[in-house]
Specification:
The chain is α+β, with helices and mostly antiparallel strands and 167 residues long. The chain has five helices and six strands. The chain has two domains: 12-122, no CATH class; 129-164, no CATH class. β4 (85-88) and β5 form a beta hairpin. It binds zinc ion (2 copies).
Amino acid sequence: MKTCPRCQIELKEQSFGDLRVDMCPTCEGSWWEDEDDELGQVMRLEDPIKALEGSDLAPILVQDKTPGTSLDAPAACPVCSKNMDRYRYLMISEIWLDRCPDHGIWLDDGELSAIVDYFAKSQDMELDPVASARLKEKLREIAARHKPEGGFKAWMGSLVGRILGIE
Ligand SMILES: [Zn+2]
Ligand SMILES: [Zn+2]
């Protein structure tokens, strides 16, 4: 069984098309096993919010439930119970998500709508200098850690491709 990182109760499996997504019936947080694949399938829909509205996952859209614990408190991965990493969605947004590098992404109530919204806006957003500097620094950091095969440029190309869903 998978446990809600906020309420410590069992997550319930919900269906959305072919996807099975675990949701907490109390705080309406949701657990996505893979950012590119599972969550990506939803993000790449033409109108993810509309598609989710009629589904069993509709409760996760509106932030109307607060968990009994702070969202800034360390949250345990529903699968391995290790504390998840906090990270900024798309590296520069103000939306902080929780991720286990081995098992998936945790979205608190309403966060899916926030990232869908941000993603849509980011399509024609001009980066302000602070965000742009932060992004460059972050990318250099990641490149230094992974030492991409084929060099930095090729790696950037494939990363951009993945973000845009054209790979
Ligand atoms: Zn919960
Ligand atoms: Zn884990």
